[in-house]
Design goal:
Elements: E1 2-6, E2 27-31, E3 48-50, H1 57-61, H2 64-81, E4 91-95, H3 102-112, E5 117-122, H4 127-133, E6 137-140, H5 146-149, E7 156-161, H6 166-169, E8 173-181, H7 201-221, E9 224-227, H8 234-245, E10 253-258, H9 262-272, E11 278-282
Parallel strand pairs: 4-5, 4-7, 5-6, 7-8, 8-9, 10-11
Antiparallel strand pairs: 1-2, 2-3
Helix pairs in contact: 2-3
The structure holds NADP nicotinamide-adenine-dinucleotide phosphate.
Organism: Porphyra umbilicalis (Purple laver)
Domain Enoyl reductase (ER): 5-281
GO molecular function, one term: oxidoreductase activity
C-alpha cells in the first residue's frame, strides 16, 4: 500500500541487503507490503524514496503503486515493440485513462517515454480529463466500441490493460504487438518477488487455469500477452520523484478523505469503480 510521511525513527542495527536508512526528518514515500492506514508504519528503506521539495504528501501518497506499476508495464512493452535507441513504443492503447493507474500511464507514455500516439478509453464525462493528461485519441467506451474504433490501420502496437478486458482488446493490437494487463488474471511467475519461498503448486495450477483463456486468445492473435504485478523499488521511485519534481507527471486526485474516519468513505469511492484518478486518505493532517 502507498505511504507518504516523515521518518521519525530508524533501526539502530544495519539490515542485511538494505541501504542505509533515511535520516530522521526526511520526507519519504513508497509502496510497502501490508497496511498503511496508520499514524506510523515500519518500512524498509529499499522501498522508499525522498519526496521532492514542493511535492505535497497527498500527491506523494497518490503516486508509488500506480506510477511504478505503469512504468514497469511500459518498460516491458518497450522491450517488445520499442524502436530505436530510446525504445519508443510507436502507438499505445491505455484502458481507463482517467483511472488511478491509467492516468499515470497516459502521462508517462506521452510526456516521459514520448509515445507518438497514445489512445485511451474513458466514459463520456472524462474525455476532457484524458485529453488534458495528454492522450492523442480518447474513446468513450460507453458510446463507441473500442474494437470498432481501432481496426486495420488504426490498430496499436501495444496496449496496457487496467480494466481486465484483455481478450476483447486483442483485435485492436497489430499481430507482433504486445499487451500487458494489470487488471486481469495473474501469471504465477509474477508472484516471485512477493512469495520468495516459492509459489505453491495449487496456486500455480489455479492461476494457469485462470490465465489460459487470455493466453490462448493472445497466441491465436499473434500478440505477446503478459500480466504484471508491481515490484516495489525505492530506486525506481527516485526516478519517479524526479518526474514529479519537474512536473512531467502530475498525480490526478479523485478525492482526499481525512482521518481514519475517512477510510470507509474512501473505500466506497474505490469500490464504485469510477474514480477519476487516485483516492487518498490523509491519516494525519499535514504538519500535524
Ligand atoms: N498488477 C498490479 O500490480 C496492479 C497495480 C495497480 C492496480 N492494479 C489493478 O488495476 C486495476 C485498475 O486500478 P486503478 O487503481 O486504476 O482503478 P480505479 O482507479 O478504481 O479505476 C477506475 C477507472 O476505471 C474506469 N473504467 C471502468 N470500467 C471501464 C471500462 N470498461 N473501460 C474503460 N475504463 C473503465 C473508470 O472510468 P469510468 O468511470 O469512465 O468507467 C475509472 O476511471 C484494478 O483492477 C487494480 O486492482 C493492479
Amino acid at each position: 500500500m502507498d505511504v507518504a510521511g516523515v521518518v521519525t525513527a530508524t533501526s539502530a542495527v544495519a539490515v542485511a541487503g538494505e541501504p542505509p536508512p533515511f535520516p530522521v526528518g526526511t520526507r519519504v514515500f513508497g509502496c510497502i507490503p501490508g497496511g498503511a492506514l496508520a499514524d506510523a508504519v515500519a518500512a524498509r528503506a529499499s522501498l522508499l524514496a525522498p519526496i521532492p521539495d514542493g511535492v505535497s504528501y497527498v500527491d506523494a501518497a497518490a503516486t508509488p503503486l500506480a506510477c511504478l506499476t505503469v512504468l514497469q508495464c511500459l518498460r516491458r512493452l518497450q522491450g517488445h515493440v520499442g524502436a530505436g535507441p530510446d525504445r519508443i513504443i510507436p502507438s499505445l492503447l491505455v484502458t481507463a485513462g482517467a483511472g488511478g493507474t491509467g492516468s499515470f500511464a497516459v502521462q508517462l507514455a506521452k510526456r516521459v517515454l514520448r509515445v507518438p500516439r497514445v489512445v485511451t478509453t474513458v466514459s463520456g464525462a472524462k474525455v476532457a480529463v484524458a485529453t488534458a493528461l495528454g492522450a492523442d485519441e480518447v474513446i468513450d467506451y460507453q458510446t463507441t466500441p473500442v474494437r470498432g474504433a481501432l481496426t486495420g490501420a488504426h490498430r496499436v502496437a501495444a496496449a496496457l490493460d487496467a480494466v481486465g478486458s484483455t481478450i476483447s482488446l486483442l483485435p485492436t493490437v497489430t499481430p507482433g504487438g504486445a499487451v500487458v494487463s494489470i487488471g486481469g488474471p495473474l501469471q504465477a511467475g509474477e508472484l516471485g518477488p512477493w512469495l520468495p519461498a516459492g509459489v505453491p503448486l495449487y496456486l500455480r495450477v489455479a492461476l494457469a487455469l485462470l490465465c489460459a483463456p487470455v493466453a490462448v486468445a493472445a497466441a491465436v492473435a499473434g500478440v505477446a500477452w503478459s500480466s504484471l504485478l508491481l515490484e516495489s523499488k525505492g530506486s525506481e521511485l527516485a526516478q519517479v520523484a524526479a518526474w514529479l519534481a519537474d512536473g512531467s507527471v502530475v498525480p490526478l486526485i479523485d478525492s482526499v478523505h481525512d482521518g481514519l474516519d475517512g477510510v470507509h468513505e474512501a473505500y466506497g469511492v474505490l469500490m464504485a469503480g469510477h474514480a477519476t484518478g487516485k483516492v487518498v486518505v490523509r491519516v494525519v493532517a499535514e504538519g500535524g
